[in-house]
Amino acid sequence: MAKEVSAALYKVNLHCPDCAHKIKKPLMRIQGVHSVDVNFEKSEVKVVGVIDAKKIHERIEKLSKKKVELLKVESKFKETVVVEKVVKEIKEPIIHTHTVKVHLHCDQCAADLRRNLLKHKGIYEVKPDIKAQRLIVEGVIEGEKLVKHVRGKLHKHAEIVTSKEIKKEEIKKEEKIEEKKKVEEVKTAVKVIGAEEVKEVQDKLKAANTPYIIHYVYAPQWFSDEDPNACSIM
């Protein structure tokens, strides 16, 4: 049969916290003692466990070197076990998106590089861009470690493209698109003007009842007195 747990309460004069500590520590080493609660303000010591109250009484007197009074003993004492829940803060990993400048000379080279990079635990996704000669890498890996990994393990020269550089390139792309739009607008305007001029000539011919268009052909100015670069017969 399991031995009963009892609680014994003692009265002892404790004039400082150090005295209380000197009593509690040795009592906790006694076999059968589950807990020791020392109340410095009330000058009380409570010992819980499978204990002999008289032996504990003698032990406290020996430790404190003072008279100790046994106030009460509770048999069949029910211990209240306080379970402290330790909540660990799990930090969610921060996913970074890195733009890496690296030489990609063909589709197979880009596919091999992507496959090797995805073997890294900190890399989740790799999107190669052969035209831009870049890789877009997503994962928890930091930029410096990524570059070091590409250079050391994959033997490729790599550089991180900063956000400022990306913005500059985006601005340049937008400017090129605007320039193309302007050129197209000018071409369209020229075509419209040309069509309007042809229509104007056709309207004039119809008004003059001319069934054909007269083309003026000028003789070549090879032999011209006015042109200093023209040919001459000596």
UniProtKB/TrEMBL annotation:
InterPro entries, A to Z: HIPP4/7/8/17/18/19 (IPR044577), HMA_dom (IPR006121), HMA_dom_sf (IPR036163)
A GO MF label: metal ion binding
Swiss-Prot/TrEMBL keywords: Lipoprotein, Metal-binding, Methylation, Prenylation
CDD domains with a match to the protein in the record: HMA
Keyword Metal-binding recorded: yes
Pfam (any one): HMA
Keyword Glycosyltransferase on entry: no
Domain of life: Eukaryota
Domain HMA, first and last residues per copy: 5-68, 95-159
Similarity field: Belongs to the HIPP family.
Protein name: HMA domain-containing protein
